[in-house]
Structures are given as structure tokens and as C-alpha cells.
Amino acid sequence: MNVPDQVLERSAETAAKLQLVDCDIHPSLNHRQALHPYLEKRWRDHLDTYGSLAHCVYAGRGGPYPRFTPETARRDAWPPNGNPPGSDLEFMKVQHLDAHDIRFGILEPIVGANNARNTDLSAALCTATNDWQVDEFTSKDKRLKASIHIGAEDAELAVEEIERRAGDRNFAQIQLGSRSVEPIGRKRYWPIFEAAQRNDMPIGFHVGGPSPYAPSPSGWPDYYIEDHHVLTHSAHAQVASMILEGVFELFPKVRVVMIEAGFAWVPPLAWRLDNHWRKMRSETPLCKRPPSEYLKQNVWFTTQPAEEPEHREDLRLLFELIGFDRMMFATDYPHWDFDDPQRALVMPMSDAERRMLFHDNAMNFYANLD
Amino acid sequence: MSISNAIDCDIHPGVPTIKVLLPYMSDYWRESFTARGQDNFQPASYLPNAPIACRPDWRDGDAIPGSNFDLLQKHALDGFGSRLAICNVLYGGSFSISETMGAAICSAVNDWVKAEWLARDPRLRASIVVPTQNPQLAVEEIERLADDRRFVQILMPVALDMMLGKQHYWPIFEAAVRHSLPIGLHAGSLYRYAPTTNGWPSHYLQDYVSNNHAFESQLLSLIAQGVFVKFPDLRIVLIESGVTWLPGFLWRARKTWRAVRPEVPWVDESPIDIVRRHVRLTAQPIDAPSDPAVLERVLNQIGSDDMLLFASDYPHWQFDGESVLPDGVPARLIEKMVNDNPLATYPRLRETIQ
Amino acid sequence: MGKHIVAALAEIPPGSQKLVHVRGRAIAVFNVNGELFGISDTCPHQGGSLATGATVGLTTSEEPGKFCHSRPGEFVRCPWHSWEFDLRTGQSWCDPRKFRTRPYDLSVEPGEALVAGPYVAETFGISVEDQYIVVEL
């Protein structure tokens, strides 16, 4: 299944003209023990014996829903050395960073570190993941920026990790999963927002995470076609939770971005929250203004997986409703539902809108992009 | 826009106390509820004193919202000039952990609705409430009442013991089709699972807003499990689901299906087409934007004028005064919502009305 | 119209696939159990290279829960979003009228015949002992 020659040839052909910031690139481990050099012996032994136990069905794999492609990846993203997609920086450069003229790429490691039920292990894995990102990627290619991976379930350890990295220019944001064990606006997570605000680091919520709960309020769907779709609900829930619990009232300078959750849901959620908050605001005293105002103030969205309305003008309407200033382009490279910068968002845009979407918004949003 | 002579597809008579149901129960259950001193089976999905449960000017002191027949008649039927209205009772039988108790309460509710609501106003129709906790018992209840043509729908909360598309529930769908009864899924949860995939929110407001996670995932389940292939005549009505989320849901459903449809090869057409053919929504609330022009565009994105049904959601607080529908709903759509679409959705309504 | 040599048959043995370029066109060539198929390489959705996609059979169903698998290897899934394309027609499965990629007729000719022309061998020499895949454009 490896066809590197063809890939390289094709990438050179399609070199893009648009300089961009890609807000979602997934680096991956080139072998199972790739984090071992960054872990104490205690945790190396633990991992070799028990693995990283999460809320899951199977021993040897992550989620309960079998994905549709190996490593959830684009089939053309396997490097020539046969290691997993996203693990080979040289190949990533040629196929992705160079080919698409990417000025900066934000790394979103999904290596299970923040999913471990053992929160001490989770914290050790997150620290290791952060060291590994710098060693293997950001120190070798200045276009790449790391995310401060944290295990949110132990907020104290999470804050320690944020403090450890906050002055390091290799890092552009704090990374959280969209599926926390409790709604993320709850008080037990507030120290994370406090630390983010204090250090002026934005928070990226990437879909997925350690939640033990069913994907649906009615339980467990049978199929990946369902699970893949309803993943987006975790992002809806986090946005609603942060707003209603008062996170943006208490920490008004916090900036968050919802990553890989699509965006067609944003305007209807805002309308729904506003309409029902007006009647029941007495329940949520820390949400002092209409929820949509916090959305406009504190929340951004990446574009992938791009919505594909039946009529092209409806795509543009979504951007107008959410605001071109809130939207940031992401490819999700090397995953299978990758969005191509040239082809994913087919709609009329002014040059100014295009610049905001592909470049300027991310430059302003993230830390250390300069 | 003022509306009259409409068919109101969602009103809520309230069960004030288990006592009103006791006359419709067997000796065993009558004694059981009395001897055990058990009452207050209002579902947590509709906290009786929460603002959403009753519009302020429709409140009747501390009474359970919707429990006063005269007020319902005055506010909902006379007030909106509706020619017909469908009673959807949200009460403990549909939510209980126990299958047998659930069945007993559901049966009593249905007989109570028949005797104390349908019999008192010819404009009223009703949904059969069923214990989905045990589909066999649910089917028995449908069979018991199906001959009464004033029951026009089978009603269940949207979040159940498990995903709705599973074969576990197919006997209910089979009975529904056999008796020309759509399945009405109403906002609300049995709370077997957390209201969000991230667990339990602190606030009722978030629970309520999150109902559309259940609506979306149940629609996907019905599609992915091939329910509409197996039961081509089945109609699903989403009640109190909101409306404006639908276009985005359809786009994402189609996009995912195009990619991974071999996983569910019996789904051999776009989910958008399936939903347009089989699914209807009551348009209360709509969850509208403040700009009517935007609302009109979003409603047009649904791509079908057949799907929305007029509803007041009485006594729930969704709008004030006479503005049942927000500005921006196109006149041509309102015309269909108030009459044609309900008649097409509920075949039994056509039997008693021209 | 002219016939163009796109590859030596030996380069694309059964079960393999290759991207070739003929007169500026990118063509994905598949050898399915000895039968050759050519389609335009670019996915009409977002432009994934179909030559790098997985070849699969056709999955259909007669009723919910039942799987029917036929035509092994005759469909390619785009390497990006997994849309399926019928190698015989170039049509997508999900929306065959709207989304399709151009199919090309391929034939196999002996090198002996090709040496005589009028074929155009663009990138390689021809050996009279070998077999070649030819497309008419």
C-alpha cells in the first residue's frame, strides 16, 4: 500500500500558492515505545505490563468503533519507511508542509496520553508527549508548533505541566480533548482556565478524549458511521458547558478553539442557547449575558471536516453567521477526512476573508507564531 | 402572523398526581401505589416549576402545568383557534426503570386521556404512550388501543434504554406501520445515560438544550440500522426538537455516508433523501435566529416544505403572546404546516376531517 | 486520437496499480486479476489521487444486517474520503451521475507490434519480447 514515488511526484506538481497556517496536524509515534525515552522506569514498566488503560472496550486499541482506514489515515500518507502516517517528519515536509506552502502547523498529538484513567500515568505521558514533540518535530522544523498536552482530569498536575511549558516558544496552545470525564466548565477544571489566562495561552479542544460516557444520550450506537458523526456533540457540550458554568465570565481573556468538530452546528446552538437562556437564566447566574456573546468573544473554530451543503451559497452563510474572524483553516493531516486547502471550502471569498481564514486569524489566535 | 383553524401537533395535558390514574389501574397497582405511598412521577426532563414547563401567563398557581382541562381548552384550543390538537402526555410510565410499573402507568395514562380529555372535546386527539422499556408490552398497549381512531401516534421520549434503531424496538415499528401510526419522539430522556457524551451538566438548561444530541443520534441510528428499509411506510415525528439544527445535521450525515457507507450497505441512498421522506418535525420551538431573513434561508435549506408541523407546545414556554411562529417562516410553508403536513403525517386525522 | 503506450504490462501485475501520465493526463491504472482498468486519477471530490486508493469489492445488501460482497477488486476507494469508484465506469457509488471520473479503454499489445508504430511510446524504449498497456487518446 506504500506508493511514495507517486506521492512525491504528485506533491511537487500541486505545490500550492496560498501561504497558510494549518491548525490541525497529527504527529504520531513511530513505534509503540517511542515515548519510553521520556518516561521514568516505573512508567516504562507499567506501560509494558498494563498498557495505558483508558475507558475502553479492547485491550490493544483505542476506541470501540473500528475506523475505516488503517491508523485513521489517508492511504497516501504512509511514509516510504513504512512507519505510521504522521511519524516521519521528512515525508510530512514533502507531502504536506512544502506542498501546501504551510507557514505554521499546529501539532495535535493523539497518542492516548490524556486518556489514561490513572491520572499520574496520564500526567507522565503528557509530559513525555510534550518533550517528544519538541525533540522530533518542532526543534527540527520551525514551521511546526507543539501543543501542551495535559491530562485535564487532575487539574493540579495539568497546571504544573502548563507552567513547565508556558515560556517555551515551541508551544502554541494547550491541548484538551473534547470528551472530558465531566463537562469541562465544571469548577474542578477551572485551574486549567486560570493558568491558560495567566499565561496567555489559548486552549484547543480536539475531538476525542477520556470520557467514559456513551456517545449518545440513548447509549451506544452500533456503527462507526454514527459514532463519527456524533463526535461533534462533545464539542457542542463543551461550548455550552463553558458558557453556562461561567468560565468566560470568570476568565474573560481565555481563548478556545474547537478542532475537528465541523461548524454548521455553531449558529443553531447559539440560537438555541440564547432562546432558552432568556427563560431560564436564573439557573445560571455566572452566565450573565446571552450565550452567543461569549461565543463571539471567546470561541473560535477550525474548519475541518468542512461542511458540504447541497448549495454552495449555504457554506458561505455559515461563515458569515459565525464570523470570518472566528474561523481557522485546518487540514487534519494525515487523517482520512483531510481537507485540501484548495478544494475543501468552495465558495466565493474576498481576498481579505481568505487571508483571515487561512492565515491571519490563526496568527492572532495562537501563541508564539512569529 | 396570526393563525387559525390549524392542526396543533403538540400539546401537553399534565398528570397532576398518580391519584387521577388509579381508577384506570388494576386492583394490584391501585393498592400498590396507595399502600407504598408513591407519587410524583413527573419526568426530570420537565421539571414542573422550571420556566420552560409552563408559560408564566398560563400558570395555574402550583398546579402541574397542563393539568387543568378548562385552561387547556381556553388557552390552547380556543386561544389559537385550532381545529384539532394532539395530546402528548409526558409522565412516569414512559420513563420508569421497571417495565411492569411503566406498562401499568402508561395504560392508565392512555385510558385517562381517553376518558377525561378526548371525551370532553371533539377537537382533541392523542398519542399512545408506551413502555419502550419492554417492546413486547409496548406492542400489547398499541394493540389494545389501536381501534380507537382518536389515537393518532405512538409517543416515546427521544433518549431511551438503548439506540432506537436496534432490532429490540422493531416490534414497535411493525405495530406502528400496521396501524398507520407515526412514531413521535419527544424531547426528554429516560436518563439511563448521561445527557451529554461528556457526562452530566450542572444545569437543567444544558440538559434541555442537549436534547438535540439525542434527536440527531436517534435519527442516525434509525438510518444506519436500516429501519426505513425494513419499514418503508414508517414515519418518525420529532417533537420539541427544535428545527434549525436540521440542515447541518443532514449535510454531515450525507458526508459521512458517502465515505463509509459500505459499513451499512442497506443504506443505499443519501440520508438526506431518507430523512426528507420519513421524518417530520413539530415547529415548536424552532430555535430561530433574530434575523427573519436568516431564518427563512435556514428553513429553505431543509429542502422540503413537507416536513414541518404546526405546534404550540402548550403549556411549555416557547413564545409569548400570539407569536406562535417567529418572523421569517415563509407564508407558503405556514400554509402547509398548519394543515396539509399534519394530515399527510397522521393518516388517522384524515379519517375524521376533510 | 492516437494510441499511447502507458506502461509495460509487467510493471502492473495482477493486484497492483500505478499512476501514469499520458499527454499530461494523470491516469490510474489497475490490474484486477489480469483485467486492466484505467480511470482519471483525480477524485472529483477534493482531488485525492485514486491511484493510491485501496481496491475493494462491491458491498451491497438485500436487507438490513445482511452483507453481500461481489466484484472483488473492481472498485477503488479514494485514499482521502473513501468514496468508492467503479473501475469499469468511473462512476462514484454515492452519486454516480454527479460524481464520476473518466474511464479509459486500455489494451495490451505485444512489443513486436508496437515497434512498427504508429504508437507513441513517451517515456521508455520498447522490447519486442514484452507486452505493453496501451491507451487510445
UniProtKB/TrEMBL annotation, chain A:
Q: Enumerate the SUPFAM superfamilies for this protein.
A: Metallo-dependent hydrolases (SSF51556)
One GO MF annotation is: hydrolase activity
Per the record, the GO terms for biological process are:
secondary metabolic process
State the UniProt keywords alphabetically: Lyase
Give yes or no: UniProt keyword Lyase: yes
Q: Which domain of life is it from?
A: Bacteria
- Amidohydrolase-related domain location: 21-366
Q: What is this protein called?
A: Amidohydrolase-related domain-containing protein
Automatic annotation (TrEMBL), chain B:
**Mind telling me which InterPro entries this protein's record contains?**
ACMSD, Amidohydro-rel, Metal_Hydrolase
What GO biological process term is on the record, naming one? secondary metabolic process
The molecular function terms in GO held by this entry are:
carboxy-lyase activity; hydrolase activity
* The keyword Lyase is assigned to this record: yes
List the keywords (alphabetical). Lyase
Keyword Lyase in record: yes
Amidohydrolase-related domain ranges (all copies):
7-347
Name any one Pfam family assigned in the record.
Amidohydro_2
Source organism superkingdom: Bacteria
Q: Which GO terms describe its cellular component?
A: cytoplasm
The name this protein carries in UniProt is Amidohydrolase-related domain-containing protein
Automatic annotation (TrEMBL), chain C:
Q: Which UniProt keywords apply?
A: 2Fe-2S, Dioxygenase, Iron, Iron-sulfur, Metal-binding, Oxidoreductase
Q: State the Gene3D superfamilies in the record.
A: Rieske [2Fe-2S] iron-sulphur domain (2.102.10.10)
The UniProt entry, under Pfam families, shows: Rieske
Residue ranges the record marks as coiled coil: none
Entry keyword Metal-binding: yes
Domain Rieske intervals: 4-115
Q: Which InterPro entries match?
A: Rieske_2Fe-2S, Rieske_2Fe-2S_sf
Q: Which residues form the signal peptide?
A: none
User: PANTHER family from the xrefs?
Assistant: 3-PHENYLPROPIONATE_CINNAMIC ACID DIOXYGENASE FERREDOXIN SUBUNIT, FERREDOXIN-RELATED
Q: What is this protein called?
A: 3-phenylpropionate/trans-cinnamate dioxygenase ferredoxin subunit
Source organism: Xaviernesmea oryzae
